[in-house]
Structure formats: structure tokens, C-alpha cells
């Protein structure tokens, strides 16, 4: 096909994309087998091109996203013409769709191994793009994304910082809460499970009801002896109230058996799991309250240390009233500094002779003519 006209190449590509089989617009003559082989190769190349373009779009989208806004690791696999050339040279006409997909996956598996970091996450994201994630790989990919989002909270924090450690602990609690949420969602999505009720006690109640009804429904046997004349009729007790009492007792027993059966179903393993989860949530709440108290104590301790440092910093501060004469007369400045320094020393040091030695006496210079100058405020 490379030796034919460019118009035929475009026609073949259009036929591979649309599925048409009209060869009337071809300029060259092609045998049916040759035509089928060319279309088979081009259909596979079009499928590979779609995957490479999808990878390129994902790479551009990930590269344009800031790190603080990411919800999953950065996608670094590329879909360029170099990848397309490496894949196209390995395609043959006899390959089926599974073999083409395996070829693409093997190529990008090798590309992911060349990355400095994130080889596993990039390969799993690529498999998710083309829709070939297994359930185990999907679970692993979700775990990687949860860990990444949890690490976003403590990103850039110092481990020696108590607040950073508290944030890390809270991130761990968040992971525990997410696992509880996933467990509850799985349980709710499973739908109502099959209810198993033991009807053995109920059947016994029906048997007793049937026996009671049979006793009162049996007709008397026909008499074989000659008729005997009776002077007065003997009263026969009525069976109706006894039958009603038997039915009431049987229905009451049936209701009790059904109540016990339903109660045994509701107090199964699911109720135990819910109770266990409630206990774990209470423990997490208690631990978070303890962490809050620890953080409050740490904050108070830091505030006290800051105030103590401020007091210590103010100790040893000497204030000297600076005048215009002291700026022009070095001797006046030194005398004034010596006097202020001596006054600021404690009395015990003065008594022990630790006071700074005074400078040798030198004749004072002639005073300058007095002139009114504004007195500047004292400087620390």
C-alpha cells in the first residue's frame, strides 16, 4: 500500500473507520485477499490510534492540574507519535482483538517501568482508561487513591511539629471511617438476604389443632342393639365452646412461634456487625476528643513559652537619652553611656568591684555656644 497513491491510502483508512466495503473509488487494482489483509491491518491500527489518543488526552489533563487540587496520583504515560510507531510496526493481519489489546498493554507496561515514581499507579490508571481492570486491580487502585488523598492533608508538614502529628493522626482516623463507610455500603448494596425461619414449632401447633378438630368431628357409630325407650332426654354438653377455645390456643401458640422465629432472624450476624461498628465509632470519638485536649494543652504551653521569651528579651534592655550634644561630642556620649551602664548594674556587683572602670580623666572641651535645639525622644 505504501507504493500506491495517497488517495487509495485515505480511502482504505476511511473504509477501516466506517466499515464500508466499496472499492469502486480505489485507483489501483487489488486482489480480494490483498484488500482484506489491508483492511484488517488498518482496522487494528485505528483501534490502537484511539487508545494512544486517549492516553495523550489524560496526560495533558493531568499535566495541567495543580498538585494541591489532585485527587489521584499524576498520570505520566504519554501518547505520542513515537508510541504509535512502536506499536504499528508490530501489528500483523492475523492478530485478533485480544492480541492487539495485549500488545498495547505490554507496550505501556514497559513505558511505566521507565518512570522514576508511580509505575504501579500509572499502569493501573491506564488499564482503567481502556476498561480492562480486574476486580483485584480496581480495589488496589481505589486504595492508592484513598492513600493519596489522605497524604494530601499532611503534605509538607514537619514530623517534629505537634500540630502536624495531630493532623496525621486525624488522617488515620479518616481512613478508618472510610473503611467503615465502605463496609456499610457493601452491606446495603447486597440487598435483603434470604430469611431462614424454622417452622418446626409452627407445624407442631398445626398438628395439635388438627388433632383437636378430629376429636370433635368424629361421628358416633350406628347402634346395633334394639331401640330402648327413654323416659327423659339426657342433656348433651355443647362442643362449640371447646372447639373455639382449642382454636384460640392454637392461634396464640402460632403467633408466639412466628414472633420467636422473626426475632431470631433479626438478631443474626448483621446486628452483631452493626453493634461492633457502633462501638468502634464511640472509641474513635473518644480518641478524637482526647487529641483535641492534647492540642489545646500544647497550644497553651506554646503561648506561655512565647510570653516567657518576650519577658526574658525585655530584661537587660538599657535606654539612653540621646541629645544633639552627644552626637557631636564623643566624650559626652561615652560619659553618659558609662553612667547609664553603672546605674543599671545590680548593687551586689557594684559592691564586689565588678563595675566597669571609668575612663581616664581628660580635660573637657570648651562648651559650644548654647543654642536652642529640640530634644529628641529617648531611643531604646
Describe the structure.
The protein has 380 residues and is mainly alpha-helical. The protein is 64% helix and 0% strand. The protein contains 13 helices and no strands. The chain has helices at 6-18, 32-63, 81-88, 97-113, 119-130, 135-153, 162-189, 200-217, 240-266, 269-314, 324-328, 330-344, 347-351. Helix 8 (200-217) packs antiparallel against helix 9 (240-266). The radius of gyration is 48 Å and the shape is flat. The chain starts with 5 loop residues before the first helix and ends in a 29-residue tail after the last helix. The relative contact order is 0.04. Mean pLDDT is 75; it is low at 219-239 and 357-371.
Give a summary of the structure in a few sentences.
This protein is mainly alpha-helical. The chain is built from 13 helices and no strands.
